[in-house]
Amino acid sequence: MHSYLPIGEISASVPVLLGLGALVGVLSGLFGVGGGFILTPLLFMIGIPSAIAVGTQGNLIVGSSFSGLLAHLQRKTVDFPMGIALLAGGIGGSFLGVRLFHWLTQLGQIDLVIKLSYVGLLGSIGAMMMIEAVTALRRRRTGGNVTLKRKHHSWIQGLPLRYRFRTSGLYISVIPPILVGMLVGVMAAIMGVGGGFIMVPAMIYLLNMPTKTVIGTSLFQITILAGFTTLMQATTNYTVDFVLAFYLLIGGVVGAQIGTRLGAKLDAETLRVLLAALVLAVSAKIGVELVLNPSESYSIMNM
């Protein structure tokens, strides 16, 4: 069963789109990430134009992240002041990123920039995730301590504009969360990602947030930021295909609920290994496509 995508101007398999949405939803529920860093490259692979994939996937991130957020709201594990600080930087970064996206599109270089960014970023993130996860597995099997120690005193403690984030038990400057949010906002616009795979480690290791509040707070920020970025893409670059978004969203909302339940039951180290392997595989696939000769000498896409 296929459906025509009016903005992408191609037909796509409905079961495949539903399956991709469900996969990203599960990742969102398990790890507190939007999942765009996996979804966007997978959309490339099934023939969705790069600009359309980047512009549209934000709809799914909104749905799957909000679905996971509801579960964390019930557990009261969302630090709203921290989420607002991250969001303030994220909206500013998203605005800058969308303008940069528009400029690169006019130059005709957006596809190359997106794919090179994915190869570099996914390759490095996937490698670090794999090393950490494999090390944790080995320590656990040998009876070693697998608890990750975080520094509680750093240069962040000396920054001005300090605020007490009561849910997370922190008293730190609002500047680092704003800067982290800004980086995530630029990435959301240029690469079509929610940024959770950067933000979650930064919240744990840089901001020293307790793990129990990281995922829910991340989902809060990602939900609103992805919605803002999608609106900007739709009104500035006209790259949001709502038919594609509809099918992805159905799968994503269901997958997020499954992921949230699995996250409380499955082994964390094994899950990190599998996620890292998936990230590295996607990075390698995009990298191979960049160096191979294309099947067509050129293509024309109306934007």
TrEMBL record:
Coiled-coil segments on the chain, per record: none
Predominant place of localization: membrane
UniProt subcellular location: Cell membrane; Membrane
Pfam families, per the entry: TauE
Keyword Cell membrane listed: yes
Topology versus the membrane: Multi-pass membrane protein
UniProt cross-references to InterPro entries, sorted A to Z: TM_pro_TauE-like, TSUP/Inactive_protease-like
Transmembrane segments: 12-31, 37-62, 83-104, 116-137, 174-207, 213-231, 238-259, 271-292
Keywords: Cell membrane, Membrane, Transmembrane, Transmembrane helix
Family designation: Belongs to the 4-toluene sulfonate uptake permease (TSUP) (TC 2.A.102) family.
PANTHER family xref list: MEMBRANE TRANSPORTER PROTEIN MJ0441-RELATED (PTHR43701), MEMBRANE TRANSPORTER PROTEIN YTNM-RELATED (PTHR43701:SF12)
Protein known as: Probable membrane transporter protein
Species name: Sinisalibacter aestuarii
